[in-house]
User: Which sequence fits this backbone?
């Protein structure tokens, strides 16, 4: 039995790009974007927690196996394919990942359907910054960044980069100044996140809400799950999407 058996599978197409999506739940919309190597059982379990908290969760399947296990072998299989896939940025500076356009249309469509103040968006690791890029669309009212790790922190500039073009960063700044807060979560000593939390504090000020954990770890809601991380995320969604 697959952990996705109780989810409704569909396909979302925008600008000629199509990806499967998995949907479950009722209430305000939240888009949960999986990490490398794909939509693992741990990612799905987190999605189930968001559903149980009273949300309509949509999980786009962007790469890797749907319902597969987290393993070094799975990561090794997926990563080379990502490196040549033009939908995703890996090391480029000051550039918004191309898949953000597709994700924005997914968010806008969900908001049009469900109404309310907007939808939540959460990315993790490789996709950690995607919720920030989605915030360029006004439909995203609750962006969450879990251990954002792209561009890969190779050198000081990339470690500080937040995976946005200057134009998109300016829009994110304006939305934050108008009251749209951004929640970020990471392990404090996680090298993969570089110094981009410091960049976000500089760019967004008090509207960047950072939650940092001690100890060794990376994936705050999956492999190295922290209950406080899950609680803070659900509280953020409640504040931003229910009121």
Assistant:
């Amino acid at each position: 039995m697959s952990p996705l058996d109780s989810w409704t599978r569909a396909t979302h197409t925008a600008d000629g790009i199509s990806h499967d999506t998995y949907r479950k739940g009722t209430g305000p919309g939240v888009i949960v974007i999986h990490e490398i190597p794909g939509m693992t059982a741990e990612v799905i379990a987190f999605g189930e927690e968001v559903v149980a908290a009273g949300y309509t969760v949509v999980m786009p399947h962007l790469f890797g196996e749907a319902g597969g296990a987290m393993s070094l072998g799975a990561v090794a299989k997926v990563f080379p394919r990502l490196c040549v896939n033009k939908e995703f940025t890996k090391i480029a500076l000051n550039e918004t990942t191309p898949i953000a356009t597709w994700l924005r249309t997914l968010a806008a469509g969900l908001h049009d359907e469900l109404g309310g103040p907007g939808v939540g968006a959460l990315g993790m690791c490789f996709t950690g910054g995607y919720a920030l890029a989605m915030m360029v669309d006004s439909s995203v009212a609750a962006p969450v960044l879990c251990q954002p790790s792209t561009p890969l922190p190779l050198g000081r500039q990339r470690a500080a980069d937040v995976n946005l073009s200057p134009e998109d960063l300016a829009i994110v700044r304006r939305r934050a100044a108008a009251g749209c807060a951004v929640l970020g979560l990471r392990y404090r000593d996680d090298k993969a996140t570089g110094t981009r939390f410091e960049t976000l504090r500089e760019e967004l000020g008090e509207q960047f809400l950072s939650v940092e954990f001690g100890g060794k770890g990376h994936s705050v809601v999956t492999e190295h799950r922290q209950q406080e991380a899950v609680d803070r995320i659900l509280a953020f969604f409640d504040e931003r999407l229910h009121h």
